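Let's inspect a concrete specimen:
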Amino acid sequence: MAAYYLDALRQMQPHGPYLLAGYSGGGLIAFEMAHQLRAADDDVALVAFIDTFCPTYLLKSQGDRVRWFVRGVREGGPRFLARWTWLKAGTTVSRLWTPPRPKGGDFWPRDEETQTVDTGPYFTAAQSTYRLRALDVHVAVFRASVRTEHGWLPPDLGWAPYVTGGISAYEIPGHHETMCLDPDVNVLAADMAAVIAAAHQRSTSVAAA
């Protein structure tokens, strides 16, 4: 998937410096794109994660997870439990069932009525086999302030062990589904603009040196 996006990216911009960003699971794709670009000696000035948590961190944080869940029940009551149960059920279904890849035609099966594509089960299966490696690129993490799952994660959403080029974290009002919509997106846009300006400044300084 990362290679597919890189082909399209290079048609628009053959060489770096590149600024990459991904929302939710798309951040992991941006991460792999950055690895492939660096392996080709291309310059990557920034990778931005928009509420993308580090998948391996979840395996190391059972104690934090329990404490967060207990706090959520105390503070959110039935509403928290209902939201958590709904999200947990969806994740479990995705992990237990991955639809077969269609023969011919579109890679992703389409809903005939809405013409939308459900990539969730495929992405979950791919993520489970992906192996993270350290990335020597500056990473900016934009995290939703309201969380109904993975609330125990640190401000950088667990990415620090896999980033050697510097990491910065920003809290955006709203939750995972609203942080990219009005009015929350205005804060995201302002912080993203500042991060992009800083990335351009770093690239200019490196080029001048």
